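Progress report, Aim 2. The chain analyzed during this reporting quarter is listed below.
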Amino acid sequence: MRITLVTPTPFQYYSGMLPGWMAGHYALNACCIDLRPLAEAAGATLITEHVLGMDADRHHIRLANGRTMAYDLLSLDVGSETDTSGLQALGDRLLPVKPLDDFFDAWPQVLATASRTPDFRLSVIGGGAAGVELALAANHALRRDGSTAQIDLIVSEAGLLPDHAPGVIRRARRQLAKTNIALHCSRASAGDAGLVLAGGTRLPAHKVIATTGARALGWLGRSGLAVDAHGFILVDAHHRSLSHADVFAAGDTCARADVRMARSGVHAVHAGPILAHNLIATIEGNALRTYRPHPRSLYLLATGPRHAIASWGRWSAEGNWVWHLKDHIDRAFIARFVRISAA
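Predicted structure tokens for the chain:
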């Protein structure tokens, strides 16, 4: 049996530590996993290349270098991209949070530009956890560098953190107000000098960070796989494609046909061991396992300094101790893969 891992870069950045890195709490190498020793430990061939397409009926994928690779069993964990509909006209002013590799490369340049630009304006679009965390992390980093930049957080009509309990929303609002981040509840589109809100208000912006939800990679819709109305791969409770039994998928790239499941890193991480078992079970002819998402998940939202908000269903709390809990969980997650590499 030959195992091949195809990935754009030999490093996997961990999104859970992105706000902490932006705020200056982590070095870059503390937030990423080196895939090369992991592939070597697994006896896998590592190919650093982008996938541009696949033909599910012919059982092959197409790489950016023009190469076509055949497979007998395929695991797709290609994530998603940021939905930037209505924002493309911003050009170089636009910085989507995904792909993560590009964001990690671009953020230090944004900080450098802000430090030498009087009256720098930064807008963050997106009212979910990512939007809140990135706005607060950006504020902390800019203030640390002595910048007087103005930060605007633009959320849709659904409001701030629409999937969270009222207590979490109140705590997040207090943090935004405390740091003088302006909150705008309105849809936004690209304008000449930044953004235009739904009511016609113009919001100047030197840079716009988009955390506007996930969009399926375009080539999935042309792959021959069964996809939902938004282009995400339809999978069953085993995370196997509904249309092709030799394809499995997990994370942002797929949608469960049997249950509603939020696009969250929590589910991606928890589905991983189930996916690993099912890949091996398919090869060996054994029974597959089911991933059952928990009705509630623990969310830890970083707020810029070493402070965070915890959320579990309707319960919430905040403080430095929450940040230290998040820090411990995140560092332990990365350390797991370092230990595997060293074994």
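Residues 320-342 form the longest helix (23 residues). The CA atoms of residues 306 and 323 lie 6 Å apart. These observations will guide the mutagenesis work planned for the next reporting period.
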